[in-house]
C-alpha cells in the first residue's frame, strides 16, 4: 500500500456538494482521491484524499472555502492527518482484490456451478447443449 505524508478527511452533507468540493480540491492541490464513504443515502459523504502535507492542507482549506459559498454551510468536518499510521490507511482506503484473489473467487464460482448442475443429474456437457 502506498504511503502518504498526509491524508485529509472531508465530511459534508449532500453528495453533490461533496463532488463540487472534490472537484475544487483536485484542481487546486496536488492530492490523490483515495476513497469516499456515503452514509444516509448520500446525505452525509466523507472524502479521503492523500498527498504531501502542504497539498492536503491546501485541499482542506479549499473545501472550507467552498463551504463558505454555500448558504446552509454543509461542511461537517475537515481534518488533516499527518504521517498517518498504515492501519488508518487500511481503514480509509478500500482494498482492491488482486488478480490471484479474483482468480480464486472465479474458480470457486465455477466449482459451485458445476456442483449444482451435477446435483440436477445432468453433466456439464448436457447442460451446455441445452443452453
From TrEMBL:
Pfam families: BMC (PF00936). It comes from the Bacteria. Keywords: Bacterial microcompartment. Residues 90-131 are annotated as: Disordered. One of its GO terms (cellular component) is bacterial microcompartment. Residues 106-122 have a biased composition (Low complexity). Residues 6-93 form the BMC domain. SUPFAM superfamilies: CcmK-like. SMART domains: BMC. The keyword Metal-binding does not apply. CDD domains: BMC (cd06169). InterPro entries: BMC_dom, BMC_shell, CcmK-like_sf, CcmK/CsoS1_BMC. Coiled coil: none annotated. It is found in: Bacterial microcompartment. Belongs to the bacterial microcompartments protein family. This is BMC domain-containing protein.
Amino acid at each position: 500500500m502506498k504511503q502518504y505524508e498526509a491524508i485529509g478527511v472531508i465530511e459534508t452533507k449532500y453528495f453533490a456538494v461533496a463532488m463540487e468540493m472534490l472537484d475544487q480540491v483536485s484542481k487546486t492541490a496536488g492530492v490523490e482521491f483515495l476513497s469516499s464513504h456515503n452514509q444516509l443515502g448520500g446525505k452525509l459523504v466523507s472524502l479521503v484524499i492523500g498527498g504531501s502535507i502542504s497539498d492536503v492542507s491546501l485541499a482542506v482549506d479549499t473545501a472550507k472555502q467552498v463551504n463558505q459559498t454555500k448558504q446552509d454551510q454543509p461542511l461537517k468536518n475537515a481534518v488533516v492527518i499527518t504521517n498517518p499510521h498504515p492501519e488508518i490507511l487500511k481503514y480509509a482506503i478500500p482494498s482492491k482484490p488482486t488478480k490471484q484473489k479474483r482468480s480464486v473467487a472465479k474458480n470457486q464460482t465455477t466449482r459451485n456451478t458445476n456442483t449444482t448442475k451435477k446435483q440436477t443429474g445432468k453433466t456439464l456437457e448436457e447442460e451446455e447443449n441445452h443452453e
